[in-house]
Amino acid sequence: MILCDVGNTSYHFLDGDRDYKQSVKTFNPHAITERVYYICVNPHAKKILDTLANWIDLSRHMDMSFYYDTMGIDRIVACEAISDGVIVDAGSAITVDVVENGVFQGGFIYPGTKAMSQTYKTISSALDYQFNYDLDLSKLPKNSQDAISYGYLKILYSEVISHARDIYLTGGDANKLNAIFPHAKIDETLIFKGMRKIIDKI
Amino acid sequence: MILCDVGNTSYHFLDGDRDYKQSVKTFNPHAITERVYYICVNPHAKKILDTLANWIDLSRHMDMSFYYDTMGIDRIVACEAISDGVIVDAGSAITVDVVENGVFQGGFIYPGTKAMSQTYKTISSALDYQFNYDLDLSKLPKNSQDAISYGYLKILYSEVISHARDIYLTGGDANKLNAIFPHAKIDETLIFKGMRKIIDKI
Question: Scanning A57, B100, B167, B179, which has its CA 20 to 30 A from the CA of A140?
Answer without folding.
Answer: B179
